[in-house]
Input
Amino acid sequence: MSYNLPDENGHFGTYGGVFVAETLMLPLDELKEAYETQMRNPEFLAELDADLQNYVGRPSPLYHAERWSRELGGAQIYLKREDLNHTGAHKVNNCIGQALLAKQMGKKRIIAETGAGQHGVATATVAARLGLECVVYMGAEDIQRQAQNVYRMKLLGAKVVAVEAGSRTLKDALNEALRDWVTNVDDTFYIIGTVAGPHPYPAMVRDFQAIIGREAREQIQKQAGRLPDALIACVGGGSNAIGLFYPFIDDESVQMFGVEAAGDGIETGRHAAPLCAGRPGVLHGNRTYLMEDDNGGIIETHSISAGLDYPGVGPEHAWLKDSGRAEYVNITDKEALEGFHALTKIEGIIPALESSHALAYAMKKAPTMRSDELLLVNLSGRGDKDMHTVAELEGIEW
Amino acid sequence: MSRLSEKLDLLKNSGRKALIPFVTAGDPNPGFTVPLMHAMVEAGADIIELGMPFSDPMADGPVIQKASERALLHRTTVRDVIAMVASFRETDQTTPVVLMGYLNPVECMGYRIFSDLAGKAGIDGLLTVDMPPEEAGDFIPLLKQSGIDPIFLLAPNSTEARIKKVSAMASGYLYYVSLKGITGAGHLDLKSVEEKLGQIKSITSLPVGVGFGVKSGETAAAIGKLADGVVVGSALVSKIADNLEQPQVAHQEIVELLSVMREAMDKNGEEQ
Output
């Protein structure tokens, strides 16, 4: 493909890079080298492929949501079913890859941060399977709202550490994981769950998630006979979106829409949409769009979905936005819930609240398109973990 | 010659080591900082590192994280910190002041505006923990134009090639982080510090300050034997946390601890 970012220092234009304390420079170099070596090692790639097939259950299906498409009265909607992966979301694609890399590098201990708990569960899962010690950092606030995932991680043998600092959410969990890493850098591998962090993480996580787009690109051509007209994916840190977008970047006819969380509405300030309403800055090892105050302090975000509740975004999305290759839009909590119910009632698929943002945008977009146009939506995760949140919001006892 | 280099040269020629206290500006309140800076100088501080509070202090332990949070409750901004130094400079034109913190608040202000205002206020150095030299190419020339030394970190796992690269871009002094970890953590391993400083000194003639793990007169003296400067942060800042209801007690305890460290470090010189 002709698209070749990032450059060797991890820059996507002015975004990305390596903004970390000195102690992390060497481990990041080692990681980069190990990653580049293993991605050329046929044995490593064969093991990764076998795990993705037999353990994760790939390829995930591409499903033509015919009834929903008909009801919306526009484009044909195809859903990439990442919700059917083992552990219930796309997160595991990346965890399998990074855990195999950790094993290759001889690291005995895995750490991770998690927001909604999906990445934590996926990390705890692969750590259990490989017999690695696993510590997951999670904001105390998120532990409250995702109790079920906390229990899953504990069952899987992970230690879940509640982070009480700052706003007690995902960004603070990331800070704490970085502090752990810098302290235990010799024996510890940090599995970052999204396409953020210092180089090589944004590129590496993208490459492990790109299987989503590679499969989807092949599947839609087989099923519909051509490339889609547009892609839609939700964007928190942005790993499922990049995973879908990346293999299509050179396909100029394919539009890309990243959907950020508008929370209570962009105009209220209570949202998690740095690409739509933030500005460039430096956080967690890279330069990207951030939600910050006038003095460069990071501000608290809000979204119904813990997985999108993050004040930054992967640097490649920042580049895709500025270059105009992708367009970033936003969906409120309320609209996301409408997407959640629509897919559940019409197609019998209960989506994660994160993915519901992508679905809600598809509900807006599809009717503006012709019925022979194709809209490919990443259904990045399933909604089991969100039952409690939705029931509580809607006043349903269970 | 910059105020920092001048000070460090002077100390070297008199056989003394630099005592470098760190406190977070605006902690526990904005009025506390400037009088404390003057008092620290009286207690024997040679250079002052002043923390710029940030919402996400990734490289700091709980003590300095909380100091940042307290300062941010008073909305202490980078501009406020610069104003504090300007106020300090009204009566002290000789003690170098280094601002220390994270890149985002500085980048948000703008590299050029920051360099300009900080230089005019009499700030002598900038250490942004999450800006390695590789990412500082645009910023260093602006800092230098304003007479501000860019100060960078070295760590126990910095390779020889990196020590060369970092020291080529740094000026003023290098800050050697004595252990792999966050501020306020762990115990000093003096032997490994000695070995690493030997390697660093064989590569660069820049003075080297050592921080992380300096908690007492004893540890300050031990580091003072090895390095050109001794940085003490969490041990001082914890005095503030311990006396939130009585900031004047914190002020006094910080001054006392620094005096103890000064005395212990100066004894080294007499023994030699």
Remarks:
- The mean pLDDT of chain B is 96.
- Chain B has one domain: 3-259.
- Residues 3-259 of chain B form a domain with the TIM Barrel fold (CATH 3.20.20.70).
- The first strand of chain B starts at residue 18 and ends at 24.
